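Reading a protein record of the kind used here takes little practice once its layout is understood. Each number in the token line that follows is a code from a learned vocabulary of backbone shapes. One such record is shown here in full, so that the layout can be seen directly:
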Amino acid sequence: MEEKKERAIIFSGGGSRFAIYAGIYAALEELGHKPDLIIGSCGGGMATNIISSFETNIERKEYLKSLEFYNFIKKFSLTKERKLYKIGLDFKIRGIRNKKNNYIEDIFNKYLLDIPENVEDFLPILAKSQGPYISNIIIGSKILFNKFEVGEKVNGRKLYKEIYMTDIKTKKLIEENWLSQKSKIFLNSSLSEKIEIRTDIPLLKASRISVSDIFYTNPVFYNGENFSGGFVDLIPIELAKSLSKEVILELKQKYKKIEEIALISTVGYSGNERMREVHDFNADYWIDTSDAAKNLKGSYISTKINLFKFQVELSIPETYEKYKNDVDIQWDYGYQRGKEAILSGKNNKKKMRDANFLNTSEEFRNKRNLSGGKN
């Protein structure tokens, strides 16, 4: 029988947090709290890949700052859906007809960002890595409908199945310990109650699948199946708790209004409701990244609105030198927040910088204020 892991951490995305997560991992390792299981979803899936694929923090940082990875990011391109009138019209229609997830949304064509599906061609060093050096699970989803069914009524049908992409040994750990105790929030959604464990998907391909995101990024077609991302279960805390003795989590930012509408209309549950639920759990350590986008503005790959052109634009460093400097800044942010979490003590949430009524419950905020946290 596979014994539970000593310590698990969930890296759950929310933008290009690759260097942030690597910095967090470096701090935990330095302070004697090195995770022996990483669970990655969305952008956290790619970070999990990089951390697992290199043996030392020096190698991880060097790869994040490599020309190979910078050139890969430069391959990201915005689609025709970037026009504000298209986004506004699409979400107006979603808001009218899809408040209760009534229709199958077109995730195959309506997304903002094209990311290459064949990531192996652009990241050969990562693809040939001798890792993984750390056990990991990448969260993704299998699409249970075909392109020709887009626009049809859902009628209670399950449209996505959550998948855990991992290795054979970790699969055994999941099968022996995972009790399938999923949140009630998912029960009335279009997410299947069944979960599939996959060991046939290479780590780099799994990471690319996990990055796929409704509204933001294109799905992946692989071996005759269509896959989408880890958005179906961004923070699988129940899984982490069932597989490890100690769990480390992030305190995360709220879902933006447009993200919340996209999730409800596509999968049928509220991301902010799930975020509140997760933040009310007990965890061993909480890492506050709720202000990452604000704190790292100008040093963080993100989308922005160009009112002159009336469209969304992508901010990627124009020079390789600027990119490498941004990686240093993000890494240091992650390192300091990881260190802060351990030094703050067990289950300490009072350090959360951006706690609001969308991403935290009233009980959470009251306890935090009594503990001396900032509003």
